[in-house]
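Hi, here's the filled form for the chain we discussed.

Project: internal
Contact: R.S.
Residues: 295
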Amino acid sequence: MKLLTPILALLLVVLVVNSAFIVREGETALLLQFGRIEGDSANGGSDYKPGLHFKIPLIQQVVRFDRRMLNLEAQPERYFDSGKNPVNVDFFVKWQIENPALYYRSFGADQLQTLANSRLTPIIKDPLRFEFNSHALADLIASARSDITERVRDQSNKAAVSLGIHVVDVRIKRIEFTDEVLDSVYKRMSAERIRLSNNLRSTGSEQAAKINADADRQVQVIKAEAERDAQLARGEGDATATELYAAAYGKDPDFYAFYRSLDAYRNAFGSGDVIVLDPKSEFMRYFGESKGEGK
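And the returned structure, exactly as it came back:
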């Protein structure tokens, strides 16, 4: 009898402890009895909000779910735009468990959301594929991305509501060309750059030819002007020399004739060539006069 009382007290404590359960902030819970969802009359629904609650020990079990925002990171998917251009689309989804009872009936406990993510992925991909097939790639990149994600979110919610899931947001992280498209783009860019470089070379050669032609013309003009100025200077010099020669001839004709003869001798004998002359010729007259005067 003495041992029975502590045992009963211990069993009572265990039953009391097992009859209470706490739902933490950021969680929601369902109470199951023999696999059937029991309603929470205090909260007016089948799910239990954060706080202290009670259950029948050993008969009822508690299943908890995360009621915070959950994230679905999908693998990049290949889509085609309206122009049949293939692109790789990387997106993510924000979702919440809106109806825990429906969620439990669809996926069971699934506390890691593995089954829910695998079921939700095709629900998102189908409308996303339709939107990409309906738009040109330039519109998708430039301005239509936000409109597309809103429509995908609304359409996904229509299918996900029966699973107890609410799709909060759908976002596209990256839109990338496939390898074959990238190769085609690179080749097109390379051909365009080659065409531009050839145009620049052609334009540069044309401008170089114009510059060279203008420089040659300026050289010819400068040479012509210099030759003209030189001719004028020579003419002026010859005129001055003629005036001086004339003045000298007028003052002393004999000396002028003698000077001119010396200049002629210098030009004739300075070349180093053999010249045969008659000593009695007019050209040699000063040699004769010089000899006679020397005697």
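Let me know if anything looks off before we file it.
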